[in-house]
Design brief:
The protein is mainly α. The protein is 53% helix and 0% strand. The chain has a domain of 89 residues.
Length: 128
């Protein structure tokens, strides 16, 4: 588990170093601007900080150990797991992302089921 944490951390550091090279980029013109992202139904496209602010925090900590404690976390917490995986040079694999989605869906299903009142789950006929 420590090895996986280390490799994920390495991917984030590599990303941070590549973006902090000190070279200034020319400003983008209106035609070069990226369109605003549309809301996504996949948690893999949500900002990491948004997942970490919910019950998904436990899943992040389980499936990506050390992620929230990484020294570069303030710089990549606004990115999605899909974005980070694309820059990780294979260190964040599709299997890891699939496992995260499965684990998160399990937590979501559990929390949804526990939020339903018992009276809503049993039909009682009060007319008799």
């Amino acid at each position: 588990m420590f090895r996986r944490s280390l490799s994920i951390g390495t991917a984030f550091v590599a990303f941070a170093l590549s973006t902090a090279s000190g070279q200034e980029l020319p400003p983008l013109s209106g035609s070069q601007m990226l369109p605003q992202p549309t809301p996504s139904s996949s948690p893999l496209d949500e900002p990491i900080r948004q997942i970490a602010d919910t019950a998904g925090r436990a899943v992040l900590d389980k499936d990506f150990p050390g992620l929230r404690q990484h020294s570069m976390y303030p710089f990549f917490k606004s990115m999605s797991l899909n974005q980070i995986a694309a820059m990780s040079k294979g260190q964040i694999t599709p299997a890891m992302l699939a496992q995260f989605q499965t684990d998160l869906a399990t937590i979501d299903a559990t929390s949804t089921a526990s939020a339903v009142p018992a009276s809503a789950t049993t039909a009682v006929d009060s007319t008799h």
